Amino acid sequence: MSALTNLDKKQLEDLNIAIEQVEKQINQFKTGFPYCDLEAPATIGNGIIKFNEADIKDLIKQFDEDKQYYDILKFIPASGAASRMFKTIYSFVEEYKDKEIPDNFLRKDKIKFDSIENFFLCIRDFAFYDDLKEKMAEHNKDIETLLSENRLVEIAEYLLENEGLGYGKLPKAMLKFHKYKEDSRFALGEHLVEAAHYSTSETENGLVAQLHFTVSQEHLDIFKKTVEKVLPKYEEMFGISYDITYSVQKPSTDTIAVDMNNEPFRNADGSLLFRPGGHGALIQNLNDLHKEIIFIKNIDNVVPDRLKPTTYDYKKALGGYLFRLQQQQFEYLNLLDEGCLANDEIEEIAKFAKEKLMIDIPNFFKTYNEIEKIDFLYGKLNRPMRICGMVKNEGEPGGGPYWVRNSNDELSLQIVESSQIDHNNEKQEAIFQSATHFNPVDLVCATQDFKGEFFDLNDYIDYNTGFISKKSKDGKDLKALELPGLWNGAMADWINIFVEVPIITFNPVKTVNDLLRDNHQEN
Question: For 176-189, what is each residue's pLDDT tens digit?
Fold first, then answer.
């Protein structure tokens, strides 16, 4: 790496980024990241647990009875802009901005669900339609007239641009997702409703639902104002209080960009170019929260009220299972901490670790003496734990559950993304393709140890699971580095437990037309 200038060092200081961190990242560009070594897909009976109806009822009961003893929070990554949702509409505006739209544009046969034609044909079914109609009326524009006259570009611009609803510039959280008889709800509003059912804690002032949103700095003020505006309605609806907190991705988690020769990429003014490190950077936000139990769910994975009961049941079941496992985990850790266990007690703990916590107990464990076995089990059990919902793979994108062997020859359950796989390796590709499930970002996490101290989550990151991508800026190619993903490498050394959940609990909104799907329509 070429020597850093004094201005470079000042820039690093302002960003709270250590020179050693930059040097390490540049070295990673040079060496690349190793591919994951997949051993097998995690499947039902081999890494994925499947509950029956009786199990679900029992775990819900445990959650409802025990939650009063825990400090529970819901964590929602919500910094992503909605612009990608409207990619098709942006392309349409660009194509027809100064061009006449054909008369038969909305009368084509066999219109595809995700097409721009379908968007306009079904525009009245979107929860934001009434807001759009009202906003256009403020500018003496009648949306129905514009639809009948095929003036579709004007409608699209009022939806996307700041003169209208400005949806193209807002985060997904602040888009109207679902329409109800009495009103319509933002995506963030649906999370407030959910939190009232499974993310509440007992306080001297009654029930409080705690939520934490990660938000981009540019949207923080308007995000807070929107929440403050809608909060009283939900507090009255459920008879609870909300404790809402926010954080932004820390500049110190940005990663340096390099040119194609692995030298620092510089902006036009000569400064170093840093880029956001991806959602893996949010492990720092999570680490700062110091909450016992944390539910994690993406901002766009919500459903209208009629479909929520299944979500509630499985959230509680996952939470109840976490309570149950953690209670036994802590009991065993107290025994291990005291030492002087009988051989049958050690074997009992090892069996729990293997069968319930999905921890691989290697063959050489049998050769250890008593002290070595206690040390081994203590190290394996005294870690943060997460229960991860897994849905059957029906072609949706997302990280899959696998048994993975690390550089220390240790076998563990991991959520693995396609970018982490050597697709030219036939054996690895075959294992990758044989996955039966994928992770919809449906997690419940325990971040406190058996002595009541919070784990430093930085100690459980696998830094070898980042990846490098090719980007461009100002017409020049560059290489960007993404940190280990939040639910992938950033949690690699946690106790990872996978549980099958129904596909109905996974309803992402990747394009605006996804909101037309039955699972996003209330009636």
Answer: 999 999 899 999 99
